[in-house]
Amino acid sequence: MGRYLLERAVQACVVLLVVSTLTFLMVSLAPGGPEIMMTMESTPEQREALTRQLGLDQPLVVRYVKWVASALRADFGRSFGDRRKVNEVIRERLPNTLLLGGAALAVSILVGIPAGIISAVRRYSASDHVVTFFSFIGVSIPAFWFAILLILVFTVHFKLLPASGMATPGVPFSLGNRLLHLILPATVLATATLPNLVRFMRSALIEEIGQDYVRTARAKGLPNRLVLSRHAIRNALIPVVTVLGVLIPRLVGGAVITETIFGWPGMGQLAVASTIGRDFPMVMGITVVVAVVVIVSNLLVDLAYGWLDPRITYG
Amino acid sequence: MRVRILALVVGVLLVTGSLIVPARGAPAGGGSIAFPIVGDPTFNPWHPRHFVESIFVTRVLFNGLTKWGKESRWVGDLAESWEVSADGLTWTFKLRRGVKWHDGRDFTADDVKFTYDIVLNPQLGATGRAAFTNIREVRVVDPATVQFLLSAPQASLVAAVGVNAGIIPRHAFANVAPANYWTHDAFNKRTPIGTGAYKIREYVSGSYVTLEKNPAYFGGAPSIDTITFKVLPDVNAQIAQFLAGDLTIIFIDNPALVRAVRGRPNVEVNTLPQNNFYYMAPNFRNALFQDRRVRQAIMHAWDRPAMIKGFLEGFATPASSPLTPVLRNFFNPNVKTYEFDRAKARQLLAEAGWRPGPDGILVKDGQRFRFALSYPTVQYFEPLAALVQQYLRAVGIEATLDGADFNTFIAQKLLPRRFDALLGWWIMPEDPDFFNYAHSSAAERGFNLPMYSNKDADALMEAGRKATSLAERERIYKRLQELMAEDLPYLQLWWPNEIRAWHTRLKGVPPIHLRAAFQWVNEWRLE
Question: Would you identify the CATH topology of the domain A86-308?
Answer without folding.
Answer: MetI-like fold (1.10.3720)
